[in-house]
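Q: Here's a chain of 208 amino acids. Please give me its 3D structure as tokens.
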Amino acid sequence: MLIPIDQIILRIVLAFILSLIFGLERQFKKKPVGVGTFTFVATGSCILTILAYIVSDTPHVIIGPIITGIGFLGAGALIRQDRKVHGATTAASIWGFAALGIVIGSGIIYLGLIFYAFIMIIVFLDSFFERHSFGPYSKYLTVTLTNLECFKGVKANLPRNTKVQNFNFDKSKNEYVFSFILNAKSEELSKIPNKILNIDGVKTLKLE
């Protein structure tokens, strides 16, 4: 199928600009994957999709493997650390921008723009949850106490919605270890270590 050159240029430039804007936003927030990856994925997917329509009567034969291949690339952005998996949003975004490139490369530009609007809404919500340490961004606090009398003091200096996730008593050391799940703004979380460590009976503290 022949595609006018102006349509080819429009689709490639649009895929490039949209992915560039998103990539810059990720770069400014110091995410593990930045502007280069998103522009390459979206623009490359767009070009391959255009090529698929030009050279083949069955473009899905070429388009299908794009999504599969990008899935492996996105998996590389996942990092497991202690209790958390980091980079899930970034990995999903890489896959999403491959889909965006395919949609725009297919010439369904209005659908691509709708999808892009949803992407930006999701990014905004994700940033909000991250600032408030909500959901997957929850923080984990582990405190070692020499006696139970100071537990109330520790709990009083934590956010209201804090929950005890785990409790352990080490008889040999006579120590009490409490693990908490924290959901609060980053500014509030940064003040917690100093408050807790100033309480008599608190031996160690770990915030992750």
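Q: Can you summarize the key feature?
A: Residues 5-131 form one domain.
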